[in-house]
Amino acid sequence: MRARRLSHLLKNVLIYVGLVVFLSPFLIVILNSFKKTQYFIENPIAWPDPFQFSNYTDAFQKMNFMRGFANTLLITAFAVLIIILFSSMTGYLFVRFKWKINQVLFFIMLAAMTVPFQVIMIPLVMAYGNLGLLDSKAILIFMYMGFGVPLGVFLFHGFIKGISYELEESSFIDGCSRIRTFFQIVFPLLRPVVVTLAVLDVLWVWNDYLLPSLVLLSPANRTLPLSIYAFFSTYSVDYGPLMAGLIMTIIPILVLYLILQDHVIKGITEGALK
User: Fold this and answer.
1) Residues 34, 46: Cα–Cα separation, whole Å
2) N or C: which end of the chain has fewer CB within 10 A?
């Protein structure tokens, strides 16, 4: 009995130590966001004394936070909405219609998930650049749809297979069309997958730097990651406001995850990620 208690205590200690080690970089960034650059250089792990709240106002103004936030929110919202809509409908089509072409397309989508983005980014940018389609938020959203739909189809495909077809047959008997049946009967049952996929895609699109840096060329179209990079390039020695800018960029996505984390766990346990 005593050995079991010691084992349980040791396990808890290791968990808390691991948690502290894992969170320490984030905590250091938070601490240094309230310091003057001089104090950051002298001792980056010391407690701020005094707290320099002006770092946040400086970062807000110098990196044009609201413009970057609006661009990022617009791109993320539309990209995630389109990915969920197209991938859920495509997954439903692949499950309910056993056509040979659907099997081939599903295999191609699974294969596309294994191709690193770095392999195709140069040909992709060259092709869109030659067509004069760069520096457009709509084109960036379209690209996100192309990269995000395969994973969405994979998740929805596995979940829809577990939904009884008898529910849809009852709807057809009552005179509902296929589209109405999907949106009123099937889609509400996909909520665990929808929330899980939405959180994953929001984390991906919101924090993405590489693809927007290749597509969005003008300062007016910059997302928050691009604004942070531009801010760092201009004020590379002003670490306090830079850390504050990083925190302001992280907070919205962190709040979203904390709100939806229960739904994500539910989606995982119900097979959304199987």
Assistant:
1) 11
2) N
Q: Strand (E) positions, the chain?
A: none
User: 193 to each of 32, 108, 255, how far by Cα in Å?
Assistant: 38, 22, 20
Distances (CA, A) of 201 to 32, 116, 144, 264: 30, 17, 9, 12
Q: Which amino acid is at 261?
A: Q
**What domains does the chain contain, in order, with CATH numbers?**
72-217+262-269 (1.10.3720.10)
What averages of pLDDT result for each successive group of 10 residues across the chain (274 residues)? 76 85 84 81 79 87 90 96 95 91 91 86 88 91 94 90 85 86 90 88 92 91 90 75 87 83 68 48
Under a CB-based contact definition with an 8 Å cutoff, are residues 75 and 137 in contact?
yes
The CA-atom distances, in angstroms, between 125 and each of 23, 81, 151, 205, 229 are: 37, 24, 22, 18, 20
- Please state the pTM of the whole predicted model: 0.86
String of DSSP letters for 39-64: HHHH-TTSPPSS--THHHHHHHHHTT
